[in-house]
Amino acid sequence: MTVLFQDKIIYMPYMPPFARSEKMEDYTTVCKPVEWEHRHIKSLDGTRIALCVGQIPDSDRQARAVMPKKHVVICYFQGNGSSLPPRLPLLSNVLKAIHARQAVPEQDTRYSLVALSYRGYWKSSGRASQRGIELDAQALLNWISTTFSKPSSNLELVLWGQSIGAGVAATAAATYLKDQAPEDPPVTGLVLETPFSGIKSMLIALYPQKWLPYRYLWPFLWNHWDNIAALQTIATCRRKPQVLILPATRDEVVPPGEADKVERLSHEIGLPTQRKDVIGALHTEATTRREGQDAVARFVLDVSKGKHVR
């Protein structure tokens, strides 16, 4: 039953109750001055998927003498439960923190945030599965490349995933970079919030007793979200992103050793990597807390300026 119903166990768009009926409008006031737009695009297999696109309008920013020379788009991949609207306030806080930290001479860079609603989640059609979500993530990156590319400005991408979304982000980055054409916008940053190394490792960590059957089920799974394999692929690509690992020190879902594995591997294969532990945070609190939001904002600003982390 665990094998047959793994998609139902891993992906929970129905939790908490009424998650799929959430409305963006209910969060408009707390998100200001960030404005959010609900969009729909087609996944690579034709499935209709929903996006939330957030920006701070130019009228609410400091006056610009010239059009932005660079546009950094942060692509957000959520965890396995709930929907996007309740996450919009924390995503808005990150955009606001980026805006607040920008110095006047650096106002030639614009920052936007695009959040993906996986198939089967919120207003997206279909049913969630790893293969389907992988197609959704690639469709998102293709749409951003087409929609935001301008002859007058350079487009850069930062991928940010939380929990299982970290696996989505890392896998999406690996697929995109492996097939990237020279004219495609680069992925300059990868944020892995409360990541695990892979579902196989999670099974062994959560069920270490050899007499339990769960640790032996991984060969029968079709959901893997293997961050280790994804990072190894990224390390072989010509244009490598910088990596931020953002664990929660009181994570009750992902064992603490999982972030250690991801960090160790990332350093070993030569990816520029930094780590910021959010002290006292539970699994879903790493970026609901101000220090987590500030860590993401600082990282995005640093990679957009070309600063290299160690």
From TrEMBL:
Q: Name one GO cellular component term.
A: membrane
Q: Which residues form the signal peptide?
A: none
Q: Which residues form the AB hydrolase-1 domain?
A: 108-218
> Which Pfam families does this chain map to?
Abhydrolase_1
The protein's matches in Gene3D superfamilies, at most eight in alphabetical order, are given as: alpha/beta hydrolase
A GO molecular-function annotation? palmitoyl-(protein) hydrolase activity
Protein name, entry field: AB hydrolase-1 domain-containing protein
Species this protein is from? Zasmidium cellare ATCC 36951
